[in-house]
Amino acid sequence: MSQGKQNTKILLVDDDPDILELLEYNLAKENYVLAKAANGQQALEIAKTFKPNLVILDVMMPILDGIETARQMKLMPELKSTILLFLTARGEEYTEIAAFEAGGTDYVVKPIKPRALVSRIKSMLNRESGGAAENAQEIIQIGDLIINRTQYSASFQGRLLVLPKKEFELLSFLARNPNKVFNRDELLEKVWGTDVYVVERTVDVHIRKLREKIPEYYIKTLKGVGYLFSIDSI
Fold this sequence. Notes:
The protein is of the alpha/beta class and 234 residues long.
């Protein structure tokens, strides 16, 4: 995403009109292009044509909740690289994990602190836009697994893999550093960044999701240490 703020599109999704107004007011001052939806179903319809760079999703909404909305968005090719930020009054760990499993990049618990949220959004967008350019290897091929950094796509034995953004980032980071062990804290820092708060279990969730899509021998667990991308069994 090399475009400026005036071309950066954000979709706001919340059933509380006061929250939508607060978000719209603070983000409009930053010159982002904005669209609003009052529930998940409406958000899916708008997203098809609006094609947002970032979606701010409430979790508890009528008709279609935020978790299911996120899952359906991640199945839409036009939203493959869209960043999902969950904004919710629910702070339970299981809800947070469900949000990340659905493809979320970040999770913010209400009440909203507008200036802090805007700063967080800026940082997320800047980090995501710079990620691809910082990687020297655009195409990585290891056995039957091919990772294309430029197109943000991956395939195994010719079959295209459906990977949410953070799953793709995690896979490509590990693949660029084969046979090197990383603990959870290192992976959180390298893939999610230091300015986004996520629990360590988020790494485990994403690893499990990747193992459902590629053979387990690619990503090995060293108990008590961390994970590594193995090429010894290829």
